[in-house]
Amino acid sequence: EPIPTNKRHRAAEIFGNKKVIDEVPWFGIEQEYTLLQPNVKWPLGWPVGAYPGPQGPYYCAAGADKSFGRDISDAHYKACLYAGINISGTNGEVMPGQWEYQVGPSVGIEAGDHIWCSRYILERITEQAGVVLTLDPKPIEGDWNGAGCHTNYSTKSMREDGGYELIKKAILNLSLRHKEHISAYGEGNERRLTGKHETANINTFSWGVANRGCSVRVGRDTEKQGKGYLEDRRPASNMDPYIVTSLLAETTILWEPTLEAEALAAQKLALKV
């Protein structure tokens, strides 16, 4: 029997289901994190006991007055490549001292494996640099962005011609299990999902095309091409990737709502499926 903290076991069961295997689920995970000064636990680059200038110039920025911790981000990227992790990019985030890296596209349970290993490598890199790593979803209260772990997801059917209808059906299913997903998407996420700072309100499910303020976002290219992927923007930076990825697969491939619930949700979300 697996121990209670072993979430990989249940994920492996879901990803081992024939229906899931046949759909070849792809994941691209955007892991955000915040770097802290070790003695004061205050973001890297921030004046101790004070605040930097407001958000705006820091996202994907260059320059010693706007980008803090690039050496750590770059070292982590190279270490992940060397380790065989499917890392595909990095960028500075909206809040200064906050960074992101992307892992994927990965198939099935590999997404969770690679995120967990990449987090361990990041802990080691920050340790060597004398910097504290936090995956807290809202490390600084107030008018500052939180840290998430946006999860981009598609199935074989979604990627094929006509897949947009399957994406809308998946969104409908996700709306009906919103509470189950939120409860599994990371501790302290209620401090992040406020409806501000590019997040949706934690109590309400929403979706939209090219809308960063929704629970689930669909890209313009996906809408235009009629196939592609969806982005679940709800997971917190400290989420368990085994839980999140397997729950997405379960809800969109294996779980079937009642016809009545499906019709009501479709009407509410203006989804014609």
From TrEMBL:
Domain GS catalytic span(s) in chain numbering: 4-273
Cellular-component GO terms for this entry: cytoplasm
PROSITE patterns documented for this protein: GLNA_ATP, GS_CATALYTIC
EC number from the UniProt entry: 6.3.1.2
TM region positions: none
Keyword entries, A-Z: ATP-binding, Ligase, Nucleotide-binding
InterPro entries assigned to the protein according to its UniProt record, in alphabetical order: Gln_synth/guanido_kin_cat_dom, Gln_synth_cat_dom, Gln_synth_gly_rich_site, Glutamine_Synthetase
First-level EC class: ligase
Single Gene Ontology MF annotation: glutamine synthetase activity
Biological processes annotated in GO: glutamine biosynthetic process
PANTHER family: GLUTAMINE SYNTHETASE, GLUTAMINE SYNTHETASE, CHLOROPLASTIC_MITOCHONDRIAL
Family to which the UniProt record says this protein belongs: Belongs to the glutamine synthetase family.
Subunit-level organization: Homooctamer.
Record protein name field: glutamine synthetase
